[in-house]
Design a protein that fits this description.
Strand content: under 5%
Mean pLDDT: 90
Shape: globular
Low-confidence stretches: none
Number of helices: 8
Number of strands: 0
Distance between the termini: 35 Å
Helix content: 55-70%
Structural class: mainly alpha
Length: 161
């Protein structure tokens, strides 16, 4: 909420760092995976973009991250989250995570990687549908009525074949 709807990325970054440490200390892998996913979303967020001047001057808490390389850092965090969620076969979360990866690659003009990530998202979605109980709910935004069609639309927008 702090970075996605309240435009308070500085506070969000501090909280994300704290949460990662708590999940590591408690050996909560799925919690850590979600924190990593949120860190990826943070680095890719519009809130961080709006605070460009601040981050260019002050930098991020992780001093190895440069504003110009924030999307690469987002991908790094998404991949950490993906590895954990994949090990636990969390296909519903993985399908959404792959969308985040694809959209980030698209922002980086790495269209081949974006297309691959969209395809992996669809694979995870189909694995979820195959393995889930019939009453299981898909994890998707309300505006997405059909996940498969959404992927097709997103791939077209990204210039995928």
């Amino acid at each position: 909420e702090l970075f996605s709807s309240k435009d308070e990325p500085v506070e969000a970054e501090e909280l994300l760092h704290d949460v990662v440490e708590v999940y590591k200390k408690n050996q909560d892998d799925l919690g850590l995976a979600e924190a990593y996913r949120q860190f990826g979303l943070f680095y890719r967020s519009n809130a961080v973009n709006k605070f460009e001047e601040y981050y260019l001057k002050e930098g991020f808490l992780d001093k190895t991250v440069k504003f110009s390389a924030r999307y690469e850092k987002a991908i790094e965090y998404f991949n950490k989250a993906r590895d954990i969620f994949a090990a636990d076969r969390q296909y519903a979360v993985l399908s959404n995570l792959q969308l985040s990866i694809a959209k980030t690659y698209d922002l980086m003009n790495q269209h081949e990687n974006a297309c691959l990530a969209f395809d992996q998202g669809l694979e995870n979605h189909l694995a979820f549908k195959k393995s889930a109980a019939p009453e299981a709910l898909e994890l998707r935004a309300d505006e997405i009525a059909n996940y498969e069609q959404y992927i097709v639309t997103m791939k077209k927008q990204a210039g995928c074949p």
